[in-house]
Amino acid sequence: MPDTNGREAFDATDLPGAHAHAPAHEGPLGQTPSQTVGPFFGYALPYAGGPDVRAAWQPDAVRVHGTVFDGAGDPIPDAIVEIWGADATGRPSTERGSFARDQHGFAGFGRAAVDRDGHYSFTTVKPGAARPGSAPYLLVTVFARGVLHHLSTRAYFGDEPEANEADPLLARVDADRRDTLIAEADAPRSYRFDIRLQGENETVFLDYGTEV
Amino acid sequence: MQRPAQQPELTQATISDEIADRHRAEGDAAASAARPLAAHPRRDFAPYRSTTLRHPTHELVRADPEEIELVSPAFGHTDVAAEEADLTIQHTGEPLGERIIVTGRILDGDGRPVRNQLIEIWQANASGRYVHKRDQHPAPLDPNFTGVGRIITGDDGSYRLTTIKPGAYPWKNHRNAWRPAHIHFSFFGSAFTQRLITQMYFPGDPLFALDPIYQSIVDPAARERLVATYDHDVSEPEWALGYRWDVVLTGPTSTWMEPEDADHA
C-alpha cells in the first residue's frame, strides 16, 4: 500500500553495498563491452618505469622492442603496449606492487606507450616455459585509438626453435603466419617483435574465449 | 577563442545511415545463425573511421589460456595512494563543474567480486577538455583538474571515486561529431584475459544515437551496460550527485577443446 513517502518500497537490498551479500547471480552475467582507449591516455596510463620490467643492468635483462604498424604499413604513433610474462623459471610473479620499480624485483608486468615512430621498448627477463612441451613467450596486448577492443598476441622467441616447433598454439597457426608470433634476436640480449594490426604479415591475434 | 575551420562534409546523416545499416546486418547475421549479438564492439566498425586501417582482417586464432593468462599482475596499496580516488583534491583549488561520486562493483561472469585489483580512470574536465597536448578543442583547461585517478577494489570488488562530471567534446570523425560525456576506465581482472579498457557514460545522453564509438557495440543491451545509473542513495546532501556502475569481466573459457578435424582455414 503506497504511502505518501513511498516508504513501502524501501528494501534493504537497495542500500549501497547491501547487494555485496546477495547470493551469486543465477547464470552468467553479461560482459561489460570494451571501448577504444582513445588518443588521450598519455597522462593517465604510462608511468615511470613502466617499460622496465627488469632493470637493464641486471645480468638476465633482455630487451623486447618493436614497432606497431597500421594496415597501410605506417607506424601508429598513439598505441600503448602491455606485456605480462612469467619469470625465468616459467612461473608468474606474485610480487605485490606491479607499478613499483625497485631495480631488483620482477613483477612481470610492463606498459609502454609507443613513441612518434610507433616504437616501443621493454626490458624484462626471458621467461621460462610454463611446462614441458610448450615454448616460452610473453603475452602482448595492444591498445590504440581506432582499436575498439584491445588485441592480444604472444611473443615467442626465435632462439627456441625446438620448443617453438613443439608448441601447441604455434602448431595451430598457419605456417605462413607463424613468424608474426616470433620475436627474433636482433642484437645480444635483444629481441624484435613488430606488431602489424592489418595487411601484409598481419600479426596473429588470439582469442582466449573472451571474444563474447 | 577562435572557432576552428570548417570540417570536411562527411555528415552526421551519412554516419548515422552507416550505423543503422551495420546494426541491421549484424542483427540479420545473428538471427540466421541463431546466436546472440556480440557484447564487445565490432573492431571493423567503419562509421568510426579510425578503425579502417587498425582492425585485423584475419579471424583471431583460438588459444587455450596457459597459467600466465589465468593470473594477473598483483597491484596493491603500495601502488596506489587512497587520495588518488578523489580527482577533486589534486590541486590547491577546487575544480569547476558538477562534483560527482561514481561507485560500483567489479564482478566476474559468475558474480564473484574481483578483489584488490587496479582501476585507472581518465577524463575530460567539465568543459570537455583533456589535459593533453593533442587535444585541440578550444575549451578552457581547468588548472585545478587533471582528470586522472586510480583505486584498488575492495574485498567485495567495490570502488568509489569522486570527480567532476566531464563535458561532451567535438572530434573529427565527421562534421559536427561530438562524443557523449564519458569517463575512461581501465580494469585488471583476476586473469589477464579479463583485461578491459572501456568508457562509462551518463544516463539519458542525447548524443548516444549519433556516436559511432558507442554504437560500435551492436547489441543494445550490451551498450546499456556502459551507462551508469543515477543513484540517489549514493548522492551526498549539499555535496555531490551519485552514480552507480557495476562492471562484469568475463573470464576465459578454459574448457574449450580443439575439434578433432580442426579447420585451419
What is this entry, summarized?
Chain B: One of its GO terms (molecular function) is protocatechuate 3,4-dioxygenase activity. Chain A has 212 residues and is mainly beta.
Q: How would you portray this structure in words?
A:
Chain B: Keywords: Dioxygenase, Oxidoreductase. Chain B: Residues 1-15 have a biased composition (Polar residues). The complex is a heterodimer of chains A (212) and B (265). By secondary structure, chain A is mostly beta strands. In chain A, 5% of the residues lie in helices and 26% in strands. Chain A contains two helices and ten strands, in the order E-E-E-E-E-E-H-H-E-E-E-E. The longest helix of chain A is centred in the last third of the chain and has 6 residues, at 161-166. Mean pLDDT of chain A is 88; it is low at 1-25. The longest helix of chain B is centred in the N-terminal third of the chain and has 21 residues, at 12-32. Chain B has helices at residues 12-32, 67-70, 220-224, and strands at residues 61-62, 99-108, 118-123, 148-152, 158-164, 169-171, 177-179, 182-187, 196-201, 229-230, 241-244, 247-249. In chain B, strands 2, 5, 10, 11 and 12 form a five-stranded mixed beta sheet that branches. In chain B, strands 4-3-8-9 form a four-stranded antiparallel beta sheet, with no helix packed on it. Chain B has two domains: 12-51; 80-248, Sandwich (Protocatechuate 3,4-Dioxygenase, subunit A), CATH 2.60.130. Chains A and B meet through strand 5, strand 6, helix 2 and strand 10 of A and strand 1, helix 2, strand 2, strand 3 and strand 8 of B.
- Describe the largest sheet of chain A: 9 strands, mixed
CATH-defined superfamily of the domain at 61-196 in chain A: Aromatic compound dioxygenase
Which residues of chain A sit in consecutive blocks of at least 5 with pLDDT less than 50? Answer: 1-25
- Overall average pLDDT of chain A: 88
Largest interface in this structure? A-B, 86 and 98 residues
Tally of strands of chain B: 12
What's the architecture of the domain at 61-196 in chain A, going by CATH?
Sandwich
CATH topology group of the domain at 61-196 in chain A = Protocatechuate 3,4-Dioxygenase, subunit A
CATH architecture of the largest domain in chain B: Sandwich
Continuous helix count of chain B: 3
The H-level CATH homologous superfamily of the largest domain in chain B, spelled out, is Aromatic compound dioxygenase
Give unreliable regions of chain B as ranges.
254-265
Pfam families (chain B): Dioxygenase_C, PCDO_beta_N
Family (chain B): Belongs to the intradiol ring-cleavage dioxygenase family.
Region (Disordered) (chain B): 1-51
Biased composition (Low complexity) (chain B): 29-39
